[in-house]
Amino acid sequence: MRASEVLGATAYDARGRRLGRIADLITDVDSAGTPVIRAALIAPGRRVRLLGYGREEMSRPWLIDRIARWVHGDLREVPWTDLSLDAGAAGGGA
Fold first, then answer.
1. Cβ atoms of residues 73 and 42 within 8 Å
2. Three-state DSSP class for residue 81
C-alpha cells in the first residue's frame, strides 16, 4: 500500500465509527531500519490539506502559528493500530 492511497481516506475506530479523514502519517524506523507507520493525523472535517505547520514541534512566525492553529486546530493524532480504513472491519491496523 502506498501513502497516496491512505492520505485522504476515511478512518474508522475499532467499532466502525467514523473518525475523519487521514491528513498525514507519522512514521518511525524499526530496529531493522524499515519505516513503519506509528500514527495518523485525523481531520474530522473535509479539510485534509496540511500547510506543513500542523505539528507542535515546528517553530514558525507568530502569524503563521495562529493561522496554522485555526486551520489545523481540529487535527488529532491516533495510533495506527487503533484505525481501520474499512467501516465494516473490527479491530485496527488497516
1. no
2. helix
CA 1 – CA 17 distance, rounded (Å): 23
Query: Could you tell me where the beta strands, DSSP code E, fall in the chain?
Result: 10-12, 18-29, 35-43, 76-79
Nearest-angstrom CA–CA distance, 52 and 25: 13
- Please write the tens of the pLDDT for every residue from 50-94: 555 555 555 667 776 666 566 656 788 999 999 998 765 544 444
CA distance 31 to 11: 28
Structure confidence at residue 40 (pLDDT): 93
Q: How far apart are CA 4 and CA 10, in angstroms?
A: 13
